[in-house]
Every structure is written in C-alpha cells, then in structure tokens.
Design a protein that fits this description.
The complex is a heterodimer of chains A (121) and B (107). By secondary structure, chain A is mainly beta. In chain A, 0% of the residues lie in helices and 51% in strands. In chain B, strand 4 and strand 5 form a beta hairpin. Chain B contains no helices and 11 strands. In chain B, the strands form 2 sheets. In chain B, strands 2, 4, 5, 6, 9, 10 and 11 form a 7-stranded mixed beta sheet that branches. A 4-stranded antiparallel beta sheet of chain B has the order 1-3-8-7, with no helix packed on it. By secondary structure, chain B is mostly beta strands. Classes of the chains: A mainly beta (121), B mainly beta (107). At the A-B interface, strand 4, strand 5 and strand 10 of A face strand 4, strand 5 and strand 10 of B.
Chain lengths: 121, 107
C-alpha cells in the first residue's frame, strides 16, 4: 500500500543539525511532490517546505530559509529534511507528506507517521 | 502570505450533534482548500480537498463547502471517533498555510 515511513526519534543539542528521512513505497516516487510540516508542543500545524521529486526544485517557508534543506534520493524513493542551527523552538513533531500531484494545487493525501525532534541545551 | 483564520478554536459538542467549523482566507484561494483531522499520536488525515470533495474512505457525515475566501466543514451526527482537532489549509499558492485549528471536545 502507499505509505511514507519516517526515521526515528532525535534528541539534539542547541546549535546542532538534524536530518530526518521519509521513505516512500507503493507508488512512483517521482510523480508526486513531497512536503514537510511540523507541530510544536501545544501548537498548530506549520508548513515548512516542498520539494519536487522529479527535478529537485524546492520552495521554503521564509522563516526557515537558510537553515532548512530538502533533498531526495530517487534510487531509494527517500526524501530528506535537514534543519541546521537548532534552537528550542525547533522542538516538534516533523511530518513528511505526499502532494497528490507535482506542485501546488494539490492536497497532502499521504502522511508519514511523524518524527519527534527534541532540542535541548 | 495568505492568512487562514479558523473559528472557533474550541468546540464542545455531544455524540449525534451537528457542528460547523469556519475557515476564512485573507485573499481568494478559489477552491484550493483542504480539511485535515489530527488526533494525538497520529498523523494528520485528509478529509476534504478542493473545498468540498470527500477523500476516499472518509464517512459521508463530513461535508465541506465554500469558495473564494469563506469555507466551512460540517459534521452531521457526531461519532465518538470524531473528537479531534481539525485544520483547514490553503494550497492555492506558496507558502501553504494552515488555520490555527479547532479542537472538538466532548460536552
């Protein structure tokens, strides 16, 4: 079946980097965009970024630009999210999700299970 | 950026009730709006897309309506499984944005 499986819990120090993976299965990876969303404790959902699995084009939320990098490995149908210079406000559950198509104008129809990232001093 | 304003932030209701959640966009997004359900410990679940299209496998008691800047999610005949937090989201343009969420609680 169509699914996205994310890597496990991460505990990082202030100022470190984290890289979360999102492995897709059950569909043709390069036909659908991947997006990342996070939820901090007690907060709502925050959209982070989108990547084209076809050509690697990206679009980042302005508040994360410069610290966030999305990549993909089409040989393993895996997407990656790397966030650098971590601060306490980055403590959150991070989700990858599939867009129902290539780009915007498509909802997020399949979600990963979420990865808890905790930033501590 | 397009701002999404959702109301109410909390809603108390009973099993069998009809409830409506409203979402307003700061500018027109045509019908490029989705509704998601989020439960603690679970990933968000797509309920409605293109403002009024029901995602496969989602019960028909969920309905979405609206276009432009005003949208609603209605649940008719609440079931125990429906008590969760609901988010609207626009995907008309980047950056995609979510509403603040509506927590549906048991009265």
């Amino acid at each position: 079946q169509v699914q996205l499986v994310q890597s496990g819990v991460e505990v990082k120090k202030f100022g470190a980097s984290v890289k979360v993976s999102c492995k897709a299965s059950g569909y043709t990876f390069t036909n659908y965009g991947i997006t990342w969303v996070r939820q901090a404790p007690g907060q709502g959902l925050e959209w982070m970024a989108w990547i084209s699995t076809y050509n690697g084009n990206t679009n980042y939320a302005q508040n994360l630009q410069g610290r966030l990098t999305l990549t993909t490995d089409t040989s393993t149908s895996t997407a990656y999210m790397e966030l650098r210079s971590l601060i306490s406000d980055d403590t959150a559950v991070y989700y990858c999700a599939r867009l129902r198509g290539y780009h915007f104008l498509h909802p997020f129809d399949v979600w990963g299970q979420g990865t808890v990232v905790t930033v501590s001093s | 950026d397009i701002q999404m304003t959702q109301s109410p932030s909390t809603l108390s209701a009973s099993v069998g009730d009809r409830v409506t959640i409203t979402c307003r966009a700061s500018q027109s997004i045509s019908s490029w709006l989705a509704w998601y359900q989020l439960k603690p410990g679970n990933a968000p679940k797509l309920l409605i897309y293109e403002a009024s299209s029901l995602e496969g496998g989602v019960p028909s008691r969920f309905t979405g309506s609206g276009s432009g800047t005003e949208f609603t999610l209605t649940i008719i005949g609440l079931q125990p499984d429906d008590f969760a937090t609901y988010y609207c989201q626009q995907y008309n343009s980047y950056p995609f944005t979510f509403g603040q969420g509506t927590k549906l609680e048991i009265k």
